[in-house]
Amino acid sequence: MDFYVRQALAVDMTARNLQDKVKKAGLPWSAAKGFDTFTPIGPFIPKNTITDPHALRLSLKINGVMKQNGTTSDMIFRIPRLIEHISSIMTLEEGDLILTGTPEGVGAVVPGDKVECSLADSDGGELATLEFTAAAREGGYEFQA
Question: Residues 90-143: pLDDT tens digits?
Fold first, then answer.
């Protein structure tokens, strides 16, 4: 796969309160994913260190409790197909990020929650970790229904 040079572990956060309201109103819900800090990204991993990108384990814990644990083999579409589809719509350039989805177990995160994520190869070798504490948004945008 010569379509990309690196992979990374990232978390695609969503403001569910905003998403639910705008979806019910038939409005675009892209703002529900676009707030500052809503896409923490771990270190970039050179693709030559990943034997099979379709055999990686993704996990996410909240306050030490496993909430998501899945593999890239569970993806509906393989990476080359995703890149082909996306590039048929828009030009992909060096540095662009593609987030491919999430394992089962999406749930709420509240201020103060400790979030721990990991990406491992098929042998259990850790490729990346990402840890953060959820914080309340101060000031700025407030959704008005």
Answer: 999 988 999 887 888 888 898 899 999 999 998 999 999 999 999 887 776 666
Among 33, 22, 8, CA closest to 119: 8
In which residue are the tokens 């991993």 written?
45
Radius of gyration of the chain (CA): 16
- Stretch 14-33: mean pLDDT: 86
Beta bridge partners of 118: 59, 129
Give me the amino acid identity at 63: N
Best CA proximity match to 137, nearest among 61, 11, 27, 32: 32
* Locus of tokens 């914080």: 135
**Cα(39)–Cα(36) distance, integer angstroms:** 8
What's the whole-model pTM score? 0.85
Alpha-carbon span 58 to 69, nearest angstrom: 6
What does the DSSP 8-state code read for residue 3?
Answer: S
Helical segments of 1-145, H only:
16-24, 79-89
